[in-house]
Design a protein that fits this description.
By secondary structure, the protein is mainly β. It contains four helices and ten strands, in the order βαββαββββββαβα. The longest helix has 6 residues, at about 50-55. About 40% of the residues are buried.
């Protein structure tokens, strides 16, 4: 998950905090973003604790596609992920310490443009850098970005309701 960035502190392996805990996904705020016509229902990691834990210890089935849910405005084929929300654009880096599910990550500028994507192996401690400043990071199940043809240069539609959650 989260490792380092000038705005995000070193991840759980270096913090000295409990690393065996995971985010209570059911209690986290959620929102919806769109990329190339695909809706993503995302957990919003806005606090330092939520960002540090990210998707640690979350099993792959929690990231499965969501069926249609008119009450939440979700179309068939909506995807699940976690969006890390920061107040500023900075260089970011994540790692997969204590993360058991392979993930894709997309680093996103404040204007919604994806600057870098990576596929990340579970439990790996190497860092995956944004290369360019980013305000957001989206994590989804591994392989999904390639399946949907999502890459650097694509635009993410992030609604104002999410932008207002920035720390």
């Amino acid at each position: 998950m989260l490792v380092l960035a000038t705005g995000w502190a070193f991840g759980p392996g270096c913090s000295g905090q409990d690393t065996d805990k995971r985010n209570d996904l059911a209690a986290m705020k959620t929102g919806q973003i769109q990329i190339k016509g695909t809706t993503f229902e995302v957990w919003l990691a806005t606090t330092p604790a939520e960002q540090e834990r990210g998707l640690m210890q979350v099993k792959e089935d929690a990231l499965a596609a969501i069926g249609p849910d008119p009450a939440r405005g979700l179309p068939n084929g909506a995807q699940r992920g976690m969006l890390f929300v920061s107040a500023d654009e900075e260089l970011r880096s994540f790692w997969m310490y204590n993360t058991i599910t392979p993930l894709d990550i997309a680093y996103i500028r404040g204007n919604g443009i994806i600057v870098k994507t990576h596929s990340m192996a579970p439990l790996e401690t190497r860092v995956y850098p944004s290369v360019e400043p980013a305000q957001f990071a989206l994590e989804v199940r591994a392989g999904l970005l390639a399946e949907l043809g999502i890459a650097a240069g694509d635009r993410v539609e992030i609604p104002q309701s999410i932008l207002k959650t920035s720390p």
